[in-house]
Specification:
Length: about 180
């Protein structure tokens, strides 16, 4: 049975994901530790960088036309000499280490690792469309009043892959294709 057999819908398992990581292009590249990151039903994404919105005075915007999309500026957080950063409560833009190459017959969703939720931290993501390639970003929000410490390369989210009923003929062609490469 093909790992994309829609007569058995659901998330791809470890073996199907591993097979696609061995493909060309690799489903996921630039990972830190394949044995640690490959999960029974997904792949753990790790932290490359953190940026904050603190002090930003210009709001972001999204209009009907792509030209009306404006992203607010961010300021990179610096990791200390041991590779840690202390985040105060608020929103942060995080960038993952991994480069993801979603084939046109798959899509993916990411969820935060449960330890983050138990520490008062959330990760918000969008859909990874079939045809997307890039080093993705997500919104990390620290809700805990005392803040949160985060280490560079920590596993923070799990990407879960789903087969589509049929491959999309074009795939993702939006502005974030090949982002952060």
């Amino acid at each position: 049975m093909s790992p994309f057999d829609i007569t058995h819908p659901g998330a791809l398992n470890r073996d199907a994901i591993a097979g696609l990581i061995d493909g060309d292009p690799a489903l996921v590249a630039g990972y830190i530790d394949l044995g640690l990151q490959l999960q029974p039903n997904g792949f753990d994404l790790t932290l490359r960088s953190v940026a904050n919105f603190h002090g930003e005075t210009a709001p972001g915007s999204i209009g009907v036309a792509d030209a009306d999309r404006k992203l607010p500026n961010t300021v990179e957080e610096l990791f200390d000499g041991d590779g840690w950063v202390l985040l105060t409560p608020g929103p942060y833009l995080i960038t993952f280490n991994e480069i993801v190459n979603i084939p046109r017959h798959l899509m993916a969703l990411a969820r935060p690792r449960s330890s983050l939720l138990r520490a008062g931290v959330a990760i918000h993501t969008a859909v990874w469309d079939g045809g997307y390639s890039g080093r993705s970003q997500a919104l990390l929000t620290v809700h805990h009043p005392a803040g949160f410490r985060l280490e560079r390369n920590a596993r923070v989210a799990q990407l879960v892959f789903f087969p589509l009923a049929a491959p999309d003929p074009e795939g993702y062609t939006g502005r974030y294709r090949n982002e952060n490469l």
